[in-house]
Amino acid sequence: MEPLFTGVSNNAHHLYTLLSCIGFASRATVQITPDGLRFSAEEGRVLQGLAFLDKSLFTSFTFNASTDTNQDISGHDKEPEVAYPHFVVSLAALLETLKIFGINDLSEPNGFRDTNLPQTNPVSSAFTAPALLMDRSCTLQYASHGAPLSIAITEAGVKTTCELVTYEPEDNESDIPLQRDAIIMKVIMRSAWLHNAIGELDSSTPIILKLSACAKREPYFALSGAGGPFSESTVEFSVDQHNEVGPDQSGQSQTHKVLADDGSSRARATRTKMVPTVTETFLVAPPSSMGDRIKQNYRFALIRKAARAMSVANKVSIRGDRQGVLSLQFMIELDDNVPAGRPVGAGVKAVGPVCFVDFRFVPLLDEEEAEMDVEVDDE
Q1: What gap in Å lies between CA 101 and CA 119, rounded to an integer?
Q2: What's the rounded Cα separation, in Å, for the pair 98 and 140?
Q3: What is the pLDDT of residues 58-67, one digit of tens each?
Q4: What sections of the protein cross the membrane (predicted)?
Q5: Which residues of the chain have pLDDT under 70?
């Protein structure tokens, strides 16, 4: 009997790069489809990370979908329904298996350290050469429903096979809904700028991330860190000059630091300007009930868990719907000779597949913000 799924990749580093983006959770739900593997990780029903391993990442991709044929009340056979395998696996164990030879990921997050991934021994070994990193064969296989997920990695003549136990997913498991027909904000920019902004805000140890967007007046797009024990910080991005909104046509962004003095006064100082032309797309259309400005608050600790994706992605699409659900969709360009996250240009041309990792965040309610403020006061 042929296995339900078999996939062979000549670059295990690609798989590790994508899956490590959602490595904040110990387990992930896997769904095998004819187009690829969908990995979903979540935390407390308020954060969800989605990584899709497209079939283009595999040199060989075989999916033998099983079909269920049932009969209706008249006794006639219904149209066969394709059953896609759906199971839960240890994401931490899978990541450890993909780097079984002790090779670290080449691209570490810049600006602030990602503590969601297991730390490896920095001591070099015979297997730490970049050439070996790009020459690793990985075979994933799922034999039948309820069977283990088998991973076989071959490198320099050494083959390692690992079988990960699979579990049944919970019945009430579902994605955090993003209302695609009710998107009120869409901002596309280089992921590095978002990563730098979150890293800047993280220095003040905030509890809440405040998002503000307006197409008519400044600040057009701003991120603020609040509720921390030290200070409040705000990063403001000006709009691309092609949008022609606002007096500043330079397309630059400014970072402002609001330092708490004695609780009664605050000093605001302009810091170094970032590179021009921050946004490629800037669409803000709030409903009339919100006025002309979108304001939403999120738990900063959850936003921080997307740091890995921010550091390796080339671009990010920031979307928000009327319910306040925030989506950070990262576009990651992979290439056999270029580490993920390295800027394309200056003689570097991306010829590999383009993959996407999506994070979804549930906004904070007023009651939750009040509870967080009380916790800070108690400290």
Answers
A1: 14
A2: 11
A3: 999 999 987 6
A4: none
A5: 67-82, 101-135, 239-277, 336-351, 367-379
CA-nearest of 90, 91, 99 to 11 is: 99
Which residue, among 193, 233, 227, 189, has the nearest Cα to 208 in the 3D structure?
A: 227
Question: Which DSSP string corresponds to 17-53?
Answer: HHHHTTTTSSEEEEEEETTEEEEEEEETTTEEEEEEE
Are 273 and 253 in contact by the 8 Å Cβ rule? The answer is: yes
Long-range CB pairs of 327-330 (<8 Å, 24+ gap) are 327/178, 327/358, 327/359, 327/360, 327/361, 328/194, 328/358, 328/359, 328/360, 328/361, 329/356, 329/357, 329/358, 329/359, 330/21, 330/191, 330/306, 330/356, 330/357, 330/358, 330/359
Between 91-98 and 12-20, two packed helices, what is the crossing angle to 10 degrees?
A: 150
Looking at residue 170, what is its pLDDT? 86
Rounded Cα distance between 127 and 239, Å, is 46
Residue with tokens 């730098």: 196
Alpha helices (H) in the chain, listed in sequence order:
12-20, 91-98, 130-133, 191-202, 300-304, 307-312, 366-378
Q: pLDDT by residue (tens digit) across 204-216?
A: 999 999 999 998 8
- What's the token pair of residue 246? 């606002």
User: Which pair of structure tokens corresponds to residue 10?
Assistant: 């000549």
| CA-based nearest residue to 255, from 274, 241, 277 | 274
Q: Whose CA is closest to 14, among 306, 333, 343, 344?
A: 333
Domains of the chain: 5-164 (3.70.10.10), 180-378 (3.10.150.10)
* Contact indicator for 70, 39 with CB cutoff of 8 Å: no
Measuring CA to CA, how many Å separate 180 from each of 156, 320, 339, 350? 46, 9, 32, 30
What is the sign of the dihedral through the CA atoms of 334, 197, 210 and 222?
negative
